[in-house]
Structure formats: structure tokens, C-alpha cells
Amino acid sequence: MPFPVHRMRRNRASEPLRRLVRETQLSPDDFILPLFAVPGKGVRKAISSMPGNFQLSIDELVKECADSLKLGIGGVILFGIPDAKDEQASGAYADDGIVQQAVRAVKRELPKLLVITDVCNCEYTSHGHCGLVVDGEVQNDPTLEWLAKAAVSHARAGADIVAPSDMMDGRVAAMRKALDASGFTNTPILAYAAKYASVFYGPFREAAESTPQFGDRRSYQMDPANAREAMREIELDLEEGADMIMVKPAMPYLDIIRQARDRFDAPLGAYQVSGEFSMLMAAIQNGWLDRDRAILESLTSIRRAGADFMLTYFARDAARLLG
């Protein structure tokens, strides 16, 4: 029967009722916190475009990881900024590279913390692109060798999961083959499977010091206009051996998250990227948005769209709010 028998507001009348019928739940273990490792000691350099985030020397990064573990956060993902860069991205796959050092330190002090490593080259190349550049073009197949070596070096250092973010064709297969050949058959690959050439990465490039010195990344990252192509990218990564998949960015691409969730059974992550974080923080700091509600609502939207876990710079704040 129609109104007044059916009153949808009945189930919204109080917070206990709302909690009881809530369809989408957030938990701290849904979150992965991105962290930026730099050489040195006692370094805690603020990232101006990302309030509350820092470039951290390894000793400071371990402290952040310890706090994350106490908060029940699902894990961390590590990015590295090396002392020096070159055209071969040698710091990306060096056994004594900054990420490799950071992984060893974190796992030594906090063996129960899940540690993911970003596997890419843009932080390590002098030109800021994600692969070998010849005559102004990023070369796909030679870059796969760098990525495979980096994945193995991260696994050797103790990474629990390796996550390629470069968007080279065939990178998952190359990494899986190299990991298996080196005895790391149980190291999962979290593929940045649908990574768009997005404007929302701007603040990250300050954090990771990875701005391209020429051109852009649209020849290898996805066109923001394409959805069907994203499903093909995800399918191919899974065929190549990806254990988990990711959509990046998150909030501007909720439709892609939903399509991926409906189509694929693999664990699905989404990256609430630096630009999403910084936009919300700017509005919060100007008093235009309520901080706590904005944080939780934004993350709920990503979870509701179908993400199993979220990489987010709000991980600590959200965990405290949920705690």
C-alpha cells in the first residue's frame, strides 16, 4: 500500500536505527596509507599541497607505520624519493634503494604490518617518465625488465604485496614470471589495472618529485573518457596473473569501480588520490565542509561503489573517527 502505510523515514529516526539498517560499512582495515620515504635521518618535510602529509626519512616512516598499526589500518603502501635520479631508473631496482631500505626497516620493527610497494620508475628517472625514453617516446618492452627487477628486489626486501603503477602493456606477466623464477611465488601482485591520465595527481607529483620534464603520460595512462577500455585493461591484468586490481583515481571514477565490481570477482581496490584529498582539505580548511563528515562520506562512496579496500591519505583520520 502507498503512503501513509509505507514511511521510509521510520528507519532513519535515530542513530541506532540508522546503524542497524546501514548497507555500507567502513572499517580501519579497509584503508591503506600511502607514505613517502626519503634518505636521511629525522626528516619530516611537509608536503605543501597535501596538509598533514610528509616526506619521511626511514626512522620517521617507521614511527608512522607503528601508529598506523595501532589504529588498525589495513596496511601501508610505500613510495620512494632517491638521492639521485638517472635515465635508467636504477634506484628503482637497486637492492639498497630507498624503498627497499624502508621495507626492511618496517618489517624488522613491525613484522605484522602489511607492506605494499609501488613499483614504478617515475620517481627514479631524471626525466620523470615511467620507462625508458628513446627519441622522446617511452618504450614499453625494455621498461618491463626494470619493473620485473624492481618487483623482485621489493619482495626480497620483505614486501607483502607489489603494486605496478606504470601502465606498460605486459608488466604483470613480466613481474609474475620474474617473481616466480626468484622463489617469490606467494608474493601477490596488486595491479593498478585501470589508471587514468588524471589531473588529480598534481599534489602527488610534489610529494614524489615525479613531474615529467617533457610531455605527459597520456600515451600510457588511460584516457579519462573511456570505460569499456578499463574493463579490457583489468581483464588482461587478471589473465597475466594479477591477484588484485585497482582503479585510480577513485571518486571521479566511481562508475568504473562499480563496473569492475559487477564484472570481476578479484579483490578490488581504489586509490583516493592526492588531488581528491587536497580538494577536500582545501574546502575543510576554508570552513566550507565539515571535516569528519566529509572524510567518512567520501570513503563511504568509494566503498559503496564496490571497492574492497581504499588507498587514502585520510586513513589515519578515518580510523580515528571509526575508533
What do you see in this structure?
This protein has 323 residues and is of the alpha/beta class. It has a single domain (24-322), classed as TIM Barrel, CATH 3.20.20. Helix content is 41%, strand content 17%. It is built from 12 helices and 12 strands. The strands form 2 sheets. Strands 1, 2, 3, 4, 5, 8, 9, 10, 11 and 12 form a 10-stranded mixed beta sheet that branches. The protein has a two-stranded antiparallel sheet with strand order 6-7. Strand 6 (132-134) and strand 7 (137-139) form a beta hairpin. Helix 4 packs parallel to helix 5. It is globular and about 70 Å long. The mean pLDDT is 96.
Largest sheet: 10 strands, mixed
- Give the uncertain stretches in residue-range form: none
Which topology does CATH recognise?
A: TIM Barrel
Q: If you compute it from the alpha carbons, what radius of gyration comes out, rounded to the nearest whole angstrom?
A: 20 Å
| Quaternary organisation of the protein chains | single chain
Tell me the name of the CATH class: Alpha Beta
Mean of residue pLDDT values: 96
Secondary structure class reads alpha/beta
Beta strand count: 12
Span between termini: 41 Å
Could you give me the name of the CATH homologous superfamily? Aldolase class I
Secondary structure tally, helices: 12
| Sequence of secondary-structure elements | HEEEHEHHEEEHEHEHHEHEHHEH
Q: Report the β-strand fraction as a percent range.
A: 15-25%
- Which architecture does the CATH hierarchy give at level 2? Alpha-Beta Barrel
Helix content: 40-55%
Describe the global form: globular
Query: What's the number of domains?
Result: 1
